[in-house]
Amino acid sequence: MNEFDERIYKLALLVPKGNVASYGQLAAMAGKPQNSRAVGRAMKNAPSGHDIPCHRVVNQNGEIAPSHVFESKKHQRAMLEAEGVVFKSNGKIDMKKSQWKPL
Question: How far is CA 68 from the centre of its chain?
């Protein structure tokens, strides 16, 4: 695991239940704002057994990960809804209501 991935995993652990963070948001917080795709890769390759809440990391438009990442899109959505994340009628996450805003 490289240093950037380690920073991303530490940041992802801070995203509280009921909130989501975007790939770009975590990349910027890690000091690499142009590396949102690397955040996605890190989430996809997160080490098991570390309880990293990868399901709370989504794209900036509030779209959840492709079906192959969390068994299905329904599975990730169900996990987020169970935590209180708000979805709009178009199926996207309401980022105004649910995006993590760290202090």
Answer: 15
Tokens of 47: 């080490």
pLDDT at 48 over 90: no
Q: Are 9 and 41 in contact (CB under 8 A)?
A: no
Q: Spell out the domains of the chain, with CATH numbers in brackets.
A: 3-98 (1.10.10.10)
Q: Which residue has 């980022």 as its token pair?
A: 95
Catalytic site positions: 54
In the chain, the N- to C-terminal Cα span, in Å, equals 28
Q: How many Å apart are CA 96 and CA 103, to the nearest integer?
A: 16
Specify the pTM: 0.91
Q: Residue 53 corresponds to which tokens in the numbers above?
A: 């809440």
**Nearest one of 18, 41, 28 to 93, comparing CA atoms:** 18
Query: For residues 17 and 77, is the Cβ–Cβ distance under 8 A?
Result: no
Q: 68-80, pLDDT tens digit by residue? A: 677 777 889 999 9
